[in-house]
Amino acid sequence: YLSRLRLTEPQLNSFIHVSDSVLKSAQEIDDKIAKGGGEALGPLAGVMVGVKDNICTADMPSTGGSRILENYRPPFDATAVKRLKEKGGIVVGKTNLDEFGMGSTTEGSGFQVTANPWDLGRVPGGSSGGSASAVSARQCVVSLGSDTGGSVRQPASFCGVVGLKPTYGRVSRFGLMAYASSLDVIGCLGTSVADVGIFLNAISGHDKFDATSSKQEVPDFESLFASINLLESKPLSGLKVGLIRETLDDGVDSGVKSAINAAVLHMQELGCIVNEVSLPSFSLGLPAYYILASSESSSNLSRYDGVRYGKQTVSDELNALYAGSRASGFGPEVKMRILMGTYALSAGYYDAYYKRAQQVRTLIRESFKTALDTNDILISPAAPSVAYKMGEKKNDPLSMYAGDIMTVNVNLAGLPALVVPCGFVEGGSSGLPVGLQMIGAAFHEEKLLKIGHLFE
Ligand code: GLN
C-alpha cells in the first residue's frame, strides 16, 4: 500500500500529510507475531487507515483543510482514532477535504485539489474526497470520513467505493472538528461492505467524552459477515425495499437512473420486494439543511479567533486581532457559510429561517419514520450525477449545493445510510461509477450491512 501511495500520490493529492512511522508501526505488529506468546492481535492489525484531516491525531498535524489551522497539532487522538489504533490499525496519513467539511468537491481545501482516480480531470466529490480517492486508488485499505450532509456517501459514489454514514450517536464525535454538531457523524469508507462493517465495529460505541454518543449496544458486525451464506438463492426473500420516488425526478442524470433501475432488478433477484414510496417533504431538505448547517457552523467556528485556536494575525487591538486572524485564515466558502448562518440566526430573521428550518426537520424525520415503519430499508441514488469535471461548479455554489439533495435528508433525520457501487456511466477512460444509497432505521446498521454485502 505504501509503495502504491508513493506512486499515485503525485497525481491524486489525496493526503495533506503522510505519516513517517507507518513502517515502524507495521514492524511492531510483525514483531508481536514473531514473538508468539498468544497475545491477541486486534481485528485491524496491520490495516492501513486514512484519516480525514478534520479528525484529530496527536502524532500528525490536523488542519481541517483550513489555512487557519496550518501546522496545528492537537494534544490528543479523536476517540475513533484511539479505538482504531487500539485494534491494531495503522494511520497512514491525513486525507484532504473541503475546508472544515464545507463543500462537495474537495476543491475547497485550503491546501490542494484532489483528483478522482477514475478520471484525473474530475473531482472525487466531497468533502471527504481525499478519503474516498485514497481508498479507490488502494493507497490505504479503509478510511475515516465525516458526514454532515453527505460527505462520506457522495465521494464514495463518485469514487466507486463503499461508504457508510452511521446513525447519529453511533460513533463518538470527540476529536472531530465540529461543523454542524447536530448533523455531524464520523463515517467509514472501504472497498467492500465487509471491510466497512468490521471497521465500523472497531470505532463504535459510547464514549464519556461525547454526551451525544449512544449507549445502544454495538452488534458484532464481524460475526454477521461470517454467518451470511453467499450461495443461497433469494437470501433477501420478502425484504421490503422502498424506492424513494422524489429521488428519480427530472434533475437526475439518465445514466444514474439506468444504474438505479438495474440495481432494483438485482435486489428483486435477491428476493426483495421493491415498491416506490413517496416522501413529500423530501425537496425541503436541501434549504432546511443549508440554513441549519450554516447556522451551527457560524457558532462552532467562532473558536477560531487566533487566540483560542488558529493562526494569529498580530495587532495591538483585540477586535482587530480576531478580525485579522479570521479574514486571513478562512477561505471564501467558509466565510460565506458564517455570514449566511449569522444572518439566519439574527434576531429579526430567526423565526423566518432557523425556526422554520427546524420545523421542516421535524417533518422530514416523521416522513422517514412513516416510510420505515412499512419498509425495511429505503433506496435512492447517492447523488444526482456521476463525478463532474474540476472547476465545473467552483463558481456556482448553488448548483454544488443542489448536488447534495440525495444525502442531506438522512442527516436531518439522524439515520444510517450505506452507499454501494451499482454500475457505471460512460465517461473518463473506463466509465464513471454510480452509487446506490440504502437508508435504514436508526441503529439498524446491521441490516444495511447484510443487504449491502449480499448486493455487492
Ligand atoms: N456538501 C455539504 C456541505 O457542504 C455536506 C458536507 C458534509 O457532509 N460535511 O455542507
Description:
This protein has 456 residues and is α/β, with parallel strands linked by helices. It has a domain of 305 residues: Amidase signature (AS) enzymes (Alpha-Beta Complex), CATH 3.90.1300. 38% of the residues lie in helices and 14% in strands. It has an eleven-stranded mixed beta sheet with strand order 1-3-2-4-6-5-10-11-9-7-8, with helices on both faces. α9 packs across α11 and α9 crosses α12. The site of glutamine (GLN) has 14 residues, from β4.
CATH homologous superfamily identity of one domain: Amidase signature (AS) domain
| Total helical elements | 15
How are helices and strands ordered from N to C?
A: HEHEHEHEHEEHHEHEHHHHEHHEEH
Highest-level CATH class of one domain: Alpha Beta
The largest sheet has its strands arranged as 1-3-2-4-6-5-10-11-9-7-8
Number of strand segments: 11
Radius of gyration: 21 Å
Low-confidence spans: none
The portion of residues assigned to helices is 25-40%
Cofactors and ligands? glutamine
Strand content: 5-15%
Give the CA-CA distance, first to last residue: 24 Å
Shape: globular
CATH topology of one domain: Amidase signature (AS) enzymes
**Main beta sheet: strand number and arrangement?**
11 strands, mixed
Quaternary: single chain
